[in-house]
Write a structure and sequence with these properties.
single chain; 200 residues; mainly beta; Neuraminidase; four-stranded antiparallel beta sheet; 19 strands; globular
């Protein structure tokens, strides 16, 4: 699994698989409630709009963000212009309370990109981790949280991409992050386990 998102309507978590174009609905213990396939390849990130009526995913291979209804019906997609090897391309996605999308480019270089209505309005290269794996918007603090697989850390950052704090993880392959109340949920792509941490 790669990418993790919270759906407040269902009060469950959602993860995506880059291997089989599948979206998994999971409970807070990591158990699979249901799954469905969608018409996008190489899924590396997922997020729901604030009212949970829209699901956004990133397709690393094709360098696009695709928009779906929560049940898996595709609405639209748009390209993300990153001159990167497709294997090191798009990795994570989140949406803030203004409906701005934030997308990560994994590495070579690592980039934070911001979009409004499918148009890029900002980008910043991130240099404090060796890669970027997923990103989450924290509504309570109006900031972002990013996870790095290779650097084995979670970074709290401003919406402009400035590092505010960094926290070490005891494992590699952290590929998805989301926060619900005072808990940080991290999904591991190596052992397919869900880890829960207290939010600092």
């Amino acid at each position: 699994p790669s990418g993790l998102a919270y759906n407040s309507k269902t009060n469950t978590l959602f993860a995506v698989s880059d291997a089989n174009s599948t979206v998994y609905e999971i409970d807070f213990s990591g158990g699979i409630k249901q799954s469905f396939t969608i018409n996008s390849k190489d899924l590396e990130g997922i997020v729901f709009s604030a009212n949970c009526d829209t699901m956004y995913v990133v397709d690393e291979l094709n360098k696009v963000v695709a928009t779906y209804l929560p049940g898996g019906i595709k609405l639209s997609s748009f390209p993300v212009n990153v001159a990167t090897d497709p294997k090191n391309s798009l990795e994570g996605i989140t949406v803030d309370n203004n409906n701005h999308l934030f997308v990560l480019n994994e590495k070579s270089p690592s980039i934070l990109l911001e979009f409004v209505n499918q148009k890029e309005i900002y980008r910043r290269e991130l240099t404090y981790t060796s890669d970027c794996s997923d990103i989450f918007y924290d509504k309570a603090l109006d900031c972002l949280w990013m996870i790095s697989d290779e650097s084995q850390k979670v970074v709290k950052l401003s919406k402009s991409g400035q590092s505010l704090a960094q926290y070490s993880l005891p494992f590699e392959k952290g590929e998805g992050i989301t926060i619900v109340n005072d808990k940080i949920y991290i999904i591991n792509d190596g052992n397919s386990k869900l880890y829960v941490f207290q939010k600092p």
